[in-house]
Amino acid sequence: MIVCGIIALFMTVSVPFMRNAIDGGKGMTRAIKDVQEACSHARATAILQQTTTELVIRPRDGTFEVTIAGNEAAQRTQMDSPDVAGNNWRMPERGAAKGGGGGGGSGFSAKLPDNVHIKGLGVNGEDWTDDPVARVRFRSNGTCDEMSIVLIDDHNEARNIWLEVVTGLPELESDESKFKAR
After folding, report:
1. Cα gap 118→152, rounded to integer Å
2. Residue 105, exposed/middle/buried by CB under 10 A (0-12, 13-18, 19+)?
3. CA–CA gap between residue 173 and residue 175 (Å, rounded)
């Protein structure tokens, strides 16, 4: 009896943890974790590398990628301007390795689970939900662009993740009446 009681107690405690471990890899929980991790990774990369990074969001595909923001205008100006010897600058290929094979990205990408979709996406006060690509910039001082994303799953469970502009940190809201405007 004592052994059965101990086993029952152990099962009572361990089953919820096992269920969370199994369910944590899919659905809304995973989607929230992926979006928050993408934002945090973009912010950390910007601060650590002292550069501007971009969180590239493809709303239709539900994909997120962190990249180093390129200053294309400056590169175009350099390409058109001759150097001291009179040679024109050559603009580096997009994604070409820079100084050690790092490439243009920071190595983070995520895709929403199949049952979770982007219902709304706002960046800097504009709606980007129907656009193919949206970009959110994170700066080296820890600040970022304004962003609000609404995720919805097949059970109509909705969550709002937005960025605190001053700190660049993601916040989560589950009460639809308190969702941030996009």
Report:
1. 6
2. middle
3. 6
Q: What angle do CA 122, 34, 168 make, to 5 degrees?
A: 55
Copy the structure tokens of residue 41.
């990774």
As a CATH number, domain 28-178 is 3.55.40.10
The pLDDT score that the predictor gives to residue 25 is 56
DSSP state, 158? E
53-58/134-138 β-pairing: antiparallel
Please say whether the beta carbons of 68 and 139 come within 8 A.
no
Strand locations in 63-123, DSSP E?
63-68, 105-111, 116-123
Tokens 């097949």 locate to 154
Could you read off the pLDDT of 113-168 as tens digits, one per residue? 999 999 999 999 999 999 999 999 999 999 999 999 999 999 899 999 999 899 99
Residue type, 140: S
Q: What is the pLDDT of residues 80-108, one digit of tens each?
A: 434 444 444 333 333 333 333 334 556 78
In whole angstroms, give the CA distance from residue 147 to residue 169: 11
